[in-house]
TrEMBL record:
Molecular function in Gene Ontology: carboxy-lyase activity; pyridoxal phosphate binding
Residues annotated with N6-(pyridoxal phosphate)lysine modification: K305
Record keywords: Decarboxylase, Lyase, Pyridoxal phosphate
Gene designation: LOC103722148
Classification via Gene3D superfamilies: Aspartate Aminotransferase, domain 1, dopa decarboxylase, N-terminal domain, Type I PLP-dependent aspartate aminotransferase-like (Major domain)
Family label: Belongs to the group II decarboxylase family.
Protein's recorded name: Tyrosine decarboxylase 2 isoform X1
Gene Ontology biological process terms from the UniProt entry: amino acid metabolic process; carboxylic acid metabolic process; phenol-containing compound biosynthetic process; primary amino compound biosynthetic process
Any one of the GO CC terms: cytoplasm
Cofactor needs: pyridoxal 5'-phosphate
Record's keyword annotation contains Lyase: yes
Statement: the UniProt record of this protein carries the keyword Heme: no
PROSITE patterns, alphabetized: DDC_GAD_HDC_YDC (PS00392)
């Protein structure tokens, strides 16, 4: 038993930890050798692993070997420089070190007293980020507002929706729940729909407003106003409007100022979801994309997407914390303590869905300190420059077209169909997507815009360089040539 792994032993941790860091470093060193998109079939792992856990300890070396042979083939490599699907999920040395430290401390920081540094560091780094984004003073912790780290943007939109729901119901009465109406464009992330389902919003009262190519897929205030007016005439209660900076499909940007003023005129909660593109707004030349955020009640961005902070780390700011706390707080006897009872501290358990919470601010703090604002800005600018290069490459090949204006580092494009193509290139582009992803050389994803099947090329992986953009373009061109010859 002397050689078995103890639950916690400093010297064993040192030995095994070094081996694990070496393993991970070797993974990153060889990441380009793996197919970007996992090529396994459903159920593959059940055939490779035993049907019960071992009775006796196994060696770390044996575990590493199984990871190499059995786990890695089933991984889609989000950190690969050839990963261009969805939106990025950034890892970094600083983020990884912060994650290690968080795991090492392994605190459960639901209230200030459970680890004061966890709460206070979170307050400080969210203020740092607010300053970098030039958010209005109301979003800083010095007033009634402040920032909090959620797991994902889905959690962020849920907690503010619940706060907005309860705030309006205190005014109009709890029996009016079935009259409450939520508004967003058809480009808004599906997380809002799920939030409505959880919050008990009547399905028919979730207004999905059409955004089309005429507005570059942003939400027109006139469309929102018409919907609000119709609902008011029907005796319903408009209470929540969500705008997006960098939509999932095409990175479209909703007009925040106009939508915010509209929300204020009708007493609605205005939430701005900048999960993807918020990171870019630390650069002065892109800050204008969140002009109008001063009208918002809440604002969110994901540091784990494009800000070199390992998943999960979603940042949410509110102008007034009170609706959040009133909606989400509980105060059982076992959680009572002097600091909380005297209202001398923030207890972030009252700003989120779960009770427990990880020390996420450590990794964000380490990213900010070990890279600094200027390097982070350069990192963002480099990806946008690479996306511009990819966009120009598309324009050199008459077989392709850019479908919507490029925003940030996302390029939406498609292979042009023949004039008499019966589905306007839907199957053609589906087949191109399938072929390039099956090759394992790159991984891209798709969307549908104005009925067209569109390919999405999102630049943002930490290791991506110009050579990877050129290689990806060649993969796309070669597969397009093969497809067009077969027609």
């Amino acid at each position: 038993m002397e050689n078995t792994l103890k639950p916690m032993d400093a010297e064993q941790l040192r030995e095994y930890g070094h081996k694990m860091v070496d393993f991970i470093a070797d993974y990153y060193k060889s990441i380009e050798s793996f197919p970007v998109l996992s090529q396994v079939k459903p159920g593959y792992l059940k055939e490779l692993l035993p049907d019960s856990a071992p009775n006796h300890p196994e060696s770390l070396q044996d575990v590493f070997e199984d990871i190499r042979q059995k786990i890695i083939p089933g991984i889609t490599h989000w950190q690969s420089p050839e990963y261009f699907a969805y939106y990025p999920s950034n890892s970094s040395t600083a983020g990884f070190l912060g994650e290690m430290l968080s795991a090492g401390f392994n605190i459960v920081g639901f209230s200030w007293v459970t680890s004061p540094a966890a709460t206070e560091l979170e307050v400080i780094v969210l203020d740092w980020l607010a300053k970098m984004l030039k958010l209005p003073d109301q979003f800083f912790s010095a007033g009634q507002g402040g920032g909090v780290i959620q797991g994902t943007a889905s959690e962020a939109v849920l907690v503010v929706l619940l706060a907005a729901r309860d705030k309006i119901l205190r005014k109009v009465g709890k029996k009016s729940l079935e009259k409450l109406v939520v508004y967003a464009s058809d480009q808004t992330h599906s997380a809002l729909q799920k939030a409505c389902q959880i919050a008990g919003i009547v399905q028919d009262n979730f207004r999905v407003l059409k955004a089309d190519r005429n507005s570059n897929y942003s939400l027109c205030p006139e469309v929102a106003l018409e919907a609000i007016s119709n609902d008011l005439s029907a005796g319903l209660i408009p209470f929540f409007l969500c705008a997006t900076v960098g939509t999932t499909s095409s990175a479209a940007v909703d007009p925040l100022s106009e939508l915010g003023k509209l929300s204020k005129a009708y007493g609605m909660w205005f939430h701005v979801d900048a999960a993807y593109a918020g990171s870019a707004c630390i650069c002065p030349e892109y800050r204008h994309y969140i002009d109008g955020v001063e009208e918002a009640d809440s604002f969110g961005m994901n540091a784990h997407k494009w800000f070199l902070t390992n998943f999960d780390c979603s940042l949410l700011w509110v102008k007034d914390q009170r609706p959040l706390v009133q909606s989400l707080s509980t105060n059982p006897e076992f959680l009572k303590n002097k600091a909380s009872q005297e209202n001398a501290v923030v207890d972030f358990k009252d700003w989120q869905i779960p009770l427990g919470r990880r020390f996420r601010s450590l990794k964000l703090w380490m990213v900010l300190r070990l890279y600094g604002l200027e390097n982070l800005q350069s990192y963002i600018r480099n990806h946008i420059n690479l996306a511009e290069q990819f966009e120009q490459l598309i324009k050199t090949d008459s077989r392709f077209e850019v479908v919507s204006p490029r925003n940030f580092s996302l390029v939406c494009f498609r292979l042009l169909p023949a004039f008499d193509d019966h589905d306007n290139g839907y199957k053609l582009n589906y087949n191109l997507l399938d072929a390039v992803n099956a090759s394992g050389k790159i991984f891209i994803s798709h969307t549908v815009l104005s009925g067209n099947f569109v390919l999405r090329f999102a630049v943002g992986a930490p290791l991506t360089e110009e050579k990877h953009i050129k290689e990806a373009w060649k993969v796309l061109q070669d597969h397009a040539t093969t497809l067009l010859r077969s027609i």
